[in-house]
Write a structure and sequence with these properties.
The protein is an all-alpha fold and 184 residues long. The chain has a domain of 125 residues. The chain is 91% helix and 0% strand. It is built from three helices and no strands. It is found in: Membrane. One of its GO terms (cellular component) is proton-transporting ATP synthase complex. One of its GO terms (biological process) is proton motive force-driven ATP synthesis.
């Protein structure tokens, strides 16, 4: 441990003016080091820094130009919007002056049109109800007719034998033939 401490003490020793050694005075060495680093940065970084600043300057100028163009366009649009607003306000004044009677007339037309439409809808509803009633009645009639016909056929088939069946068919054919001659 004493060797390490001795070496630090030895580093703290200042050599005489004619010899070479380490300067361990932190304040004096930092100033020298900082001035060397700053000098090197200025010498080598001058071009890079000036390029960076020129690029930044161009971007700022382009942004300013674009902002000016946008401002001019916004001013034009604002003037157009103000002109449209004045025109709309004048039209609104005309509507206020002349519009109340037109509104009342349109209101009456709308009421009359709505009333007529309601009447037509009521008529359509009644026609639909009547149509559905007739359709239901016809369906019931068809079912009753089919059931009666099935019942009659069942009765005839159970009561008729082949010979009676053939005579009935011939008799009906004869009646249909006579009816056809009468209608012709």
């Amino acid at each position: 441990m004493t060797n390490v401490t001795d070496s630090f003490v030895f580093l703290g020793h200042r050599p005489s003016a004619g010899s070479f050694g380490f300067n361990t005075d932190i304040l004096a060495t930092n100033l020298i080091n900082l001035s060397v680093v700053i000098g090197v940065l200025i010498f080598f970084g001058k071009g890079v820094l000036s390029d960076l600043l020129d690029n930044r300057k161009q971007r700022i100028l382009n942004t300013i130009r674009n902002s000016e163009e946008l401002r001019e366009k916004a001013i034009e649009q604002l003037e157009k919007a103000r002109a449209r607003l004045r025109k709309v306000e004048m039209e609104a004044d005309q509507f206020r002056v002349n519009g109340y009677s037109e509104i009342e007339r349109e209101k009456m037309n709308l009421i009359n049109s709505t009333y007529k439409t309601l009447e037509q809808l009521e008529n359509y509803k009644n026609e639909t109800i009547h149509f559905e009633q007739q359709r239901a009645i016809n369906q019931v009639r068809q079912r009753v007719f089919q059931q009666a016909l099935q019942g009659a056929l069942g009765t005839l088939n159970s009561c008729l034998n082949n010979e009676l069946h053939l005579r009935t068919i011939n008799s009906n054919i004869g009646m249909f033939g006579a009816m056809k001659e009468i209608t012709d």
